[in-house]
């Protein structure tokens, strides 16, 4: 079942992707799916099953004994008929009582063992799924941002949800079914051969046509199945897109056109579904015909053998009972094949994701930062070159030194490399060449917790997690007290609107009344960053949705907050520049102007021109 | 909320006991009857009713032929074998073969006649769900996460289709077979039949109890699965924040907790199933053991024929699947019932009646006696706003003159976006009226209204389609020239540089564009149709200063010929407008030109320059 859950709830803002120029986006489009190293799926399966080896052995033992008990039924019937009845006629009830006792005993054992087996295998399955879900989740969190920008969120989410579901279905329904089928086939074959090798051999021969039927079904259904997956995937994309964009859909009267488009993919999916059902019908028809012809044949031969005295009647009865049991599960085998196919595909995709190593790696031997002299830290870009995977260069050769405590504003047109600069400093990416250093220590040598304590970035994205407003702010400092959370909110000018929410700081942002505008979200993001109290603060377009008073409140707060810290502010709006000690104007990955705001405004460069335009737009 | 004492835990989708309230509207976990829910699906299955009947008939006949086999076996054992009369064997073997082939053919038929119609039923249901969701108001979509809707359109549909193809047919057939087989067993030997049937009573009682428990558990598992999916979604969508603050470990903790809860529920389901299987397989098997003993005794002492015993045992065996499958089928029916309930939760959602009624109604040409957009006493509160909170809009009176551009300003969160959403009726005003050129928007058909009013949203959404299709959404009949003009107006020159120009695919399935690029395309979409009324919600927020200035310049031409309401955060955007309306405390506090308001309204001055904030004096470039 493919449930590619797409980004965000409808109530959630659409998240703008990080500033990405067309080239970067192109790189993303080329890079459709990550390659799966050969054997990765099998290795993953091994890792998942490994820890449960002992319990799996126990489960297999349980089912071995269970099937033995289960399949002994017809055999005991034969014994009852061929031994019990004649003995009884001789007034010896011993054999019949023994057989009955054995039958009841076997029934009881089979029942109890089956119960135990289902419980145990359920436990193993769930433990495996828990392990697998956790692996994917943790791995997705570990992967670096360049990966997340390439591999759409929808796809990662479907790895952790629908693909796991496919495996769950296989484990829950298919696997134990298959085990039982395989075991019963083995047992029955052995018993049949043992009871009468002639008839047994005849039954054995039927495996050949059965095998051919299963093989042909598998081949044919595989194609249909792929078609069906594709159709369903298309369906899901249409569906989620409509629901996530319901406002424009309704505002631009897309309903009718959408219904037509959705109808088309819906019909495709129906066609594939119907074809799948027809394949199944064909398979069941063929396998049943084979089974019934064989049973008839066995009865025919058996009748002759019984008549000429070389076969007991009870044995023939047992044979007929066994043969039905032998062929009955063949239908289920087909269903198993389907869930096996989807699970195999899912496992492959999950293995691919898990085999992908984060490009921003943890250091093998982390270095500690020297004790900070003040609140801030020195930042240095040393001959940094950065290029996207497709070779497009964003920063050709970048050198920059920011002394501790300096507030730097970076301006420039879209694609000038401002955001790349910020992401390198936050170590969302690693530079292609050169190094980014904090107090002289390469960022690549810092352990993640150490890095995140010191460098915090606020982006223009203002995603809120479900939970209360207070919890969303406390992401900045998990052990913060309510007073600290409030203080941060007050400092940034967010306290007023939070206090007016139905439950104040305890308002759940996803529940009734928790409607929070884009600007307010940005204030929450700021409060979060304040609370984190980092040595280096990066603001990437962090005020784009604020109105003038909001922005000014933020700037007021920033003046106090940024004092002593190193800060990098990336801005479209020049108002932000007012609080900077230094302005960098970037173009095509180079710094083209560098100076204090006053110097640059007084000059004749681009910044002066920009600034003039902006001032004219003001009151 | 346990997390409140410990803000360390990152905010989570749902705390354990809030699992079901987290999601859609107070979905009642209350047990609707499975049967009632499934019966409601009948209208969909109705088209295929003869096929279903045919399928049931075929399956029934197939089962009867299975039941006939033991009777033939009995004749073979008691006739040809007992009397060494092999000549009599041939017709009986022939009969056996015919029965076997008939069974196979009927099985084939049963599936074939249902394949297309049932795929069609699924399609019809999904199509209806999709259409219904498109009609439901935005306020509905605000409450329902898309993941919840998606699972209704996909996995729930699969479950329901499967129910029609398989369990439905077999619930009917197996009951028939069970009754027939029972009758047969009684005719063979009433004592053996009684022994075999004893377990039926506890079995039926047990499965009834099972049905209830299992349905509750599977609904719980479905919901918990949804919660888990929410954690995953959030952890991926919020990945930059989690990484920026190094918080992914605590999120993982959260994830572990939720997947642990799901595991517990799944284990409960497995436990219930294990017990069911034990009862359903064990009891009949024990009874069969007793029947075997008694039967053997009867053959030895009571003159019962060996053939009868063989026939009886084969019949009892043939009845095993109908009995064994009972639990499985009921479990499936329960799951289909809960899927049907989830489906109808959406389908039962009332649609705004006026919208539905006005659909297709002749769209009266707007009377021209009151040109422009007029709000009269418009009030609004979100349907899900908590009790006791004031309305968001408490009485809007505003007139946008024809051809005029009105800027709408106000503090963050005061309801500007909401106000604009009322015009195309994305939300319904709670009270008051809005007229376009004198015609109440409620008297216009939805299509006509939205044709008249064009909107650019603050969050620009692009669909998986080409740039051209995305822009021409605003005016399907527009030509190349209009497209070019619209793109030029929105300064979307970057389109020419895309790999396939305006034919480049964008959206989730295509090229991802930056926020500014998407915003410009959304703007182009809004203006491409030369709409009579234009609503722009902060259309320039994601643009850099340069682009913003260029767009503004181009927009002036468009705005000159249309009646527009523009939500503005910044002075630069306000300057596009002829007049400005100030929204505060749910009312329009002041209307006037930018200069007038700057002089007359301190609130406006504060909003535009932050001047009211005393500590900022002198900090602004002047």
From TrEMBL, chain A:
Residues 1-23 are annotated as: Disordered. Coiled coil: none annotated. InterPro entries: AAA+_ATPase, ABC1_TM_dom, ABC1_TM_sf, ABC_transporter-like_ATP-bd, ABC_transporter-like_CS, P-loop_NTPase, Type_1_exporter. Keywords: ATP-binding, Membrane, Nucleotide-binding, Transmembrane, Transmembrane helix. The keyword Nucleotide-binding applies. GO terms for molecular function: ATP binding. Residues 379-613 form the ABC transporter domain. It is a multi-pass membrane protein. Residues 58-342 form the ABC transmembrane type-1 domain. It is found in: Cell membrane. It comes from the Bacteria. The chain crosses the membrane at residues 58-81, 93-113, 178-195, 201-217, 293-323. This is ATP-binding cassette subfamily B protein. It comes from Kitasatospora paracochleata.
Automatic annotation (TrEMBL), chain B:
Keywords: ATP-binding, Membrane, Nucleotide-binding, Transmembrane, Transmembrane helix. The chain crosses the membrane at residues 50-73, 88-108, 162-186, 192-210, 272-297. The keyword Methyltransferase does not apply. CDD domains: ABC_6TM_Rv0194_D1_like. Residues 1-32 are annotated as: Disordered. It is a multi-pass membrane protein. Pfam families: ABC_membrane, ABC_tran. Gene3D superfamilies: ABC transporter type 1, transmembrane domain (1.20.1560.10), P-loop containing nucleotide triphosphate hydrolases (3.40.50.300). InterPro entries: AAA+_ATPase (IPR003593), ABC1_TM_dom (IPR011527), ABC1_TM_sf (IPR036640), ABC_transporter-like_ATP-bd (IPR003439), ABC_transporter-like_CS (IPR017871), P-loop_NTPase (IPR027417), Type_1_exporter (IPR039421). It comes from the Bacteria. One of its GO terms (molecular function) is ATP binding. It is found in: Cell membrane. Residues 53-335 form the ABC transmembrane type-1 domain. Residues 373-610 form the ABC transporter domain. PANTHER family: ATP-BINDING CASSETTE SUB-FAMILY B, ATP-BINDING CASSETTE SUB-FAMILY B MEMBER 6. This is ATP-binding cassette subfamily B protein.
């Amino acid at each position: 079942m493919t449930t590619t859950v797409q980004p965000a709830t409808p109530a959630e803002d659409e998240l703008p992707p990080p500033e990405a120029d067309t080239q970067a986006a192109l790189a993303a489009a080329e890079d459709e799916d990550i390659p799966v190293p050969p054997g990765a799926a099998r290795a993953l399966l091994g890792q998942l099953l490994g820890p449960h080896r002992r319990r799996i052995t126990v489960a297999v033992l349980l089912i071995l004994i269970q099937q033995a008990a289960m399949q002994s039924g017809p055999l005991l019937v034969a014994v009852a008929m061929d031994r019990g009845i004649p003995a009884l006629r001789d007034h010896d009830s011993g054999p019949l009582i023994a057989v009955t006792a054995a039958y009841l005993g076997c029934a009881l054992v089979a029942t109890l063992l089956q119960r135990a087996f289902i419980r145990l295998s359920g436990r193993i399955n769930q433990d495996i799924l828990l392990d697998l879900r956790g692996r994917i989740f943790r791995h997705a969190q570990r992967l670096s941002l360049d990966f997340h920008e390439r591999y759409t969120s929808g796809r990662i989410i479907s790895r952790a949800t629908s693909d796991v579901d496919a495996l769950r279905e296989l484990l829950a329904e298919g696997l134990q079914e298959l085990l039982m089928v395989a075991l019963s086939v083995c047992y029955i074959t052995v018993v049949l051969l043992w009871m009468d090798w002639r008839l047994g051999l005849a039954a054995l021969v039927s495996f050949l046509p059965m095998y051919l039927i299963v093989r042909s079904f598998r081949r044919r259904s595989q194609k249909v199945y792929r078609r069906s997956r594709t159709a369903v995937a298309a369906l899901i994309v249409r569906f989620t897109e409509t629901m996530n964009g319901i406002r424009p859909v309704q505002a631009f009267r897309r309903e009718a056109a959408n219904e037509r488009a959705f109808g088309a993919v819906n019909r495709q999916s129906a066609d594939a579904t119907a074809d799948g059902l027809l394949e199944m019908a064909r398979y069941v028809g063929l396998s049943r015909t084979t089974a019934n012809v064989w049973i008839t044949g066995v009865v025919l031969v058996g009748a002759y053998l019984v008549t000429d005295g070389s076969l007991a009647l009870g044995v023939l009865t047992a044979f007929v009972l066994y043969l039905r049991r032998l062929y009955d599960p063949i239908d289920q085998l087909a269903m198993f094949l389907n869930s096996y196919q989807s699970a195999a595909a899912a496992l492959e995709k999950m293995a691919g994701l898990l085999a992908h190593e984060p490009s921003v790696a943890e250091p093998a031997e982390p270095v500690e930062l020297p004790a900070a002299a003040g609140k801030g830290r020195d930042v240095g870009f040393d001959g940094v070159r950065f290029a996207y995977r497709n070779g497009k260069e964003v920063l050709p050769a970048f050198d920059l030194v920011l002394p501790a405590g300096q507030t730097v504003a970076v301006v420039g047109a879209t694609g000038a490399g401002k955001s790349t600069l910020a992401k390198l400093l936050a170590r969302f990416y690693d530079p292609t060449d050169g190094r980014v250093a904090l107090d002289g220590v390469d960022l690549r040598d810092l352990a993640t917790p150490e890095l995140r304590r010191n460098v915090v970035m606020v982006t223009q994205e203002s995603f809120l997690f479900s939970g209360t407003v207070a919890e969303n702010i406390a992401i900045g400092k998990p052990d913060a007290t309510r007073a600290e959370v409030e203080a941060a909110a007050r400092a940034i000018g967010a306290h007023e609107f939070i206090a007016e929410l139905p439950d104040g700081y305890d308002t759940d942002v996803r529940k009734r009344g928790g409607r929070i505008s884009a600007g307010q979200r940005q204030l929450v993001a700021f409060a979060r960053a304040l609370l984190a109290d980092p040595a280096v603060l990066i603001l990437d377009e962090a005020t784009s949705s604020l109105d003038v008073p909001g922005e000014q409140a933020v700037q007021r707060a920033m003046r106090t907050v940024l004092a002593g810290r190193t800060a990098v502010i990336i801005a479209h709006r020049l108002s932000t520049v007012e609080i900077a000690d230094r302005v960098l104007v970037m173009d095509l990955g180079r710094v083209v102007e560098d100076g204090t705001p006053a110097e640059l405004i007084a000059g004749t460069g681009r910044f002066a021109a920009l600034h003039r335009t902006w001032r004219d737009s003001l009151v | 909320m346990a997390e409140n004492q410990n803000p360390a835990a990152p905010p989570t989708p749902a705390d354990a006991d809030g699992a079901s309230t987290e999601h859609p509207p107070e979905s009642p976990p209350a047990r609707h009857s499975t049967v009632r829910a499934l019966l409601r699906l009948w209208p969909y299955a109705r088209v295929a009713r003869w096929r279903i009947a045919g399928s049931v008939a075929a399956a029934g006949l197939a089962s009867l032929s299975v039941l006939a086999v033991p009777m033939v076996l009995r004749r073979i054992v008691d006739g040809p074998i007992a009397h060494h009369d092999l000549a009599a064997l041939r017709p009986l073997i022939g009969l056996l073969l015919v029965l076997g082939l008939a069974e196979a053919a009927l099985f084939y038929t049963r599936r074939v006649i249902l394949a297309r119609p049932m795929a069609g039923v699924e399609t019809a249901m999904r199509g209806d769900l999709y259409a219904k969701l498109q009609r439901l108001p935005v306020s509905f979509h605000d409450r329902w996460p898309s993941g919840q809707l998606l699972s209704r359109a996909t996995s729930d549909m699969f479950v329901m289709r499967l129910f029609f193809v398989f369990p439905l047919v077999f619930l009917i057939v197996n009951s028939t077979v069970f009754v027939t087989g029972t009758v047969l067993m009684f005719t063979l030997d009433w004592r053996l039949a009684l022994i075999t049937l004893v377990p039926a009573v506890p079995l039926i009682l047990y499965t009834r109890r099972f049905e209830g428990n299992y349905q509750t558990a599977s609904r719980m598992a479905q919901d918990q699965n949804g919660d888990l999916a929410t954690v995953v979604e959030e952890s991926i969508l919020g990945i930059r924040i989690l990484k920026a603050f190094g918080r992914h470990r605590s999120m993982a903790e959260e994830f572990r907790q939720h997947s642990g809860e799901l595991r517990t529920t799944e284990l409960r389901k497995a436990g219930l199933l294990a017990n069911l299987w034990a009862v359903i397989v064990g009891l009949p098997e024990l009874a069969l053991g007793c029947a075997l003993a008694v039967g053997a005794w009867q053959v030895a002492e009571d003159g019962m024929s060996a053939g009868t015993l063989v026939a009886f045992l084969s019949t009892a065996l043939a009845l095993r699947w109908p009995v064994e499958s009972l639990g499985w089928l009921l479990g499936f029916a329960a799951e289909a019932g809960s899927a049907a309930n989830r489906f109808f939760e959406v389908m039962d959602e009332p649609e705004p009646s006026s919208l539905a009624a006005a659909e297709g109604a002749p769209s009266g040409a707007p009377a021209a006696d009151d040109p422009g957009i007029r709000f009269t006493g418009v009030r609004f509160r979100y349907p899900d706003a908590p009790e006791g909170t004031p309305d968001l809009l408490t009485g809007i009176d505003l007139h946008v003159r024809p051809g005029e551009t009105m800027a709408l300003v106000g503090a963050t969160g005061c309801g500007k976006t909401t106000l604009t959403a009322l015009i195309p009726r994305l939300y319904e005003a709670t009270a008051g009226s809005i007229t376009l050129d004198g015609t109440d928007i409620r008297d216009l058909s939805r299509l006509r209204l939205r044709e008249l009013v064009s909107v650019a949203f603050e969050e620009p959404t692009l669909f998986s389609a080409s740039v051209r299709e995305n822009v021409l959404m605003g005016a399907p009949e527009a030509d190349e020239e209009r497209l070019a003009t619209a793109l030029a107006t929105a300064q979307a020159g970057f389109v020419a540089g895309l790999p396939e120009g305006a034919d480049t695919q964008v959206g989730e399935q295509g090229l991802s564009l930056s926020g500014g690029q998407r915003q410009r395309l959304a703007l182009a979409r809004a203006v491409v149709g030369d709409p009579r009324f234009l609503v722009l919600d902060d259309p320039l927020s994601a643009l850099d200063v340069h682009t913003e200035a260029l767009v503004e310049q181009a927009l002036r031409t468009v705005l000159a010929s249309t009646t527009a309401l523009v939500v503005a955060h910044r002075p630069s955007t306000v300057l596009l407008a002829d007049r400005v309306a100030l929204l505060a405390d749910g009312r329009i506090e002041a209307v006037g030109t930018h200069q007038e308001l700057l002089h007359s309204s301190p609130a406006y001055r504060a909003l535009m320059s932050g001047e009211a904030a005393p500590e900022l004096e002198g900090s602004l470039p002047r």
